[in-house]
Amino acid sequence: MTALNISVKNLRELADLINTVVGEAKFKFDKAGMLVRVVDPAHVAMINAEVPREAFVEYQIDSDEEIALDLEKLKNVLKLAGSNDNVFVRKTNDKLKFELGTVSKSITLLDNSIVTVPKIPQISSESFLVISRGDFERGLKAAEDVSDAIKFTLSPEEFTARSASDSEDSEMTIPKDMLKEIKCSGTIKSLYPLEYLLKFVKSIPSSETLKLSFKDDYPLTIEFNFGGSGLMKGLFLLAPRTE
Amino acid sequence: MPWSEKYRPRNLQDIVITDDLYTRIYSWVEKWLSGRPQKKGLILYGPPGTGKSSTAYCIADSFGIPVIEMNGSSQRNSDKMKEIAGNAAMTRDIFSNYSEPNTKPDKIILIDEADNIDAGRTGTDSGGIRELGSIIRNTACPIILTMNDFYEFRRKNGADTVISGSDAIEFKQYARRNDNNSKNFRVKLLKRVRDILAKEGKSLGPEILNDIFERNGTDIRAILNDVEAAASSSSPTMSGDRDESSNIFRSLESILIDRDPVKSLSALADKDFTVDQLLLWIDENLVDVADNPADLSSSYENIAIADLYNGFVIKKQHFAFQGYAQEIAALTGSTLQNSARHFLKFQFPVYLSRMSAVRDSREARKSVQLKLARFNHSSTGTISAYEWFFRLLAQSSGQEFSSLASRLLLSEAEARIIGGK
Fold first, then answer.
1. What would the pLDDT profile of A70-127 be if each residue is shown by its tens digit?
2. Of the residues A173, A206, B18, B397, which has the maximum number of CB atoms within 10 A of its CB?
3. What is the pTM of this model?
4. B88–A219 CB contact, under 8 Å
5. What homologous superfamily does CATH list for B19-170?
6. CA-based nearest distance A173→chain B, Å
7. Rounded distance, CA A220 to CA A46, Å?
């Protein structure tokens, strides 16, 4: 029998995060904890989220388990609860039952075979920076109504996020001493679709810092911790725009 | 899983498509291998089950790149189009091989059943087709569109930019029976079916296969379904044609060109258009078919009678009259003494295209009449008889007219219609 108890806030944040790229997702459970990995239908963004068993109040599984869910339904159930509550989740046959204090509700599971889990592509780059979530979001928001793409440039001295259209432009420059960490030997730059980044950053309010790595015309990798206790580990991959 | 799904071709060796058609499609693909071509889209049109989508998958497979597919009606408004096809068109694929230089497209976007996309006249939605047009103009990767009815699609709102940015290829395996292409098709089909039968450990005699091939034409999905059914039954014999809904072109051909009354009637048994449309189409094309005036006159007489019965449906509120209208219309061809034997391209009824061209102004007129009728405590019929008054008012005293317009909350278009400008 699979039975879980987790804080509503953590589960809600996870659902919001995954929902920025897909509508349906498969959650995999094993001894170490839970894993969700999704890619959006346009093959532009991928999210990998790991929730170790320590992030659960109670974590009970008999064997490895897979649960495929409609995220909109999950979010609707969680709306019934307050942020400080815990939710008790139990799997029975083809249903997932949620107990939220005085309310209980069950939702139908999706067929495991129709929701696929993608492989993580081989992506690695030497250069990275660690930036506060707030600073990063400010730079993205400045670009929001300018263009649908944003260009990141990283040099040993600074990180800039620039966006331009025919009539307007925006730029955020953060010198290296205002970054939490930086590793970069030359100058690298790459262009990314803005909308995905905005949705992503908005969905992880509890994350404090983001580790961004990329290189010239190469996918962007963002590593972050999220959830109330910061125990949940996330990875966001974003393909570059063609120029 | 049915065989037609299980053995959906995954590479170019397996797909049943004539060399000729393959060459034409491949020449579009080749342009993509040397930079961005002018025609960034490829429209494949033709009947269902012939392998249009499979071809897209096989092309992608031959380059080892993924297909980003959009289908299903829920994904068809302009927002969804932008979100999936738009993003995919402007961005590299996350699964692309980034250790190699980016010289070739790293994915193919497939818009399945593009003729079902919402042309969008509702609310703020600017229409999925219009959006698709701008995506094709700006895309960095190849886009393949499949559709059954290219002619229907061509008349939709915003379809012109889609078409001007694309090569359109009719997915027609061969023009005539026994031409070189049809032989080529037959050879490939037979090989593919035998391969599948061998993999399943079954066999079927040549007469049965022949029977199945004859019956289904180029619909490979239907062929595989029949082959599967025949191979799994103990006494594999079947006869009778597959039910197939007939489109307007096929029906017109049987009514006006072949002129066999029995066949014409049966062609209408399962039609995907209405009797009203049928009458309009016959009306439009009759003049090209009938060679002499006497013929023309008698056949117009005939559809006039059919139209009369069709009118009875509304007048008498009895649907059964439509049956008479349909059968009389089906006999139009057999009243002809001589007729054109040469190839005819059936024309779309002018009446329908004119009506759709003035649709906006008709609707504006209707709504302004309603507003005026309510204001004057009269019927819209009365208002329409006194339209000259408002036009005169607008011409002689613009101020009075505009105060009336603002009082009735007329939109600009409505004021223009009633003001006669």
1. 999 999 999 988 878 899 999 888 889 999 888 899 999 998 888 889 999 988 899 9
2. B18
3. 0.69
4. no
5. P-loop containing nucleotide triphosphate hydrolases (3.40.50.300)
6. 25
7. 10
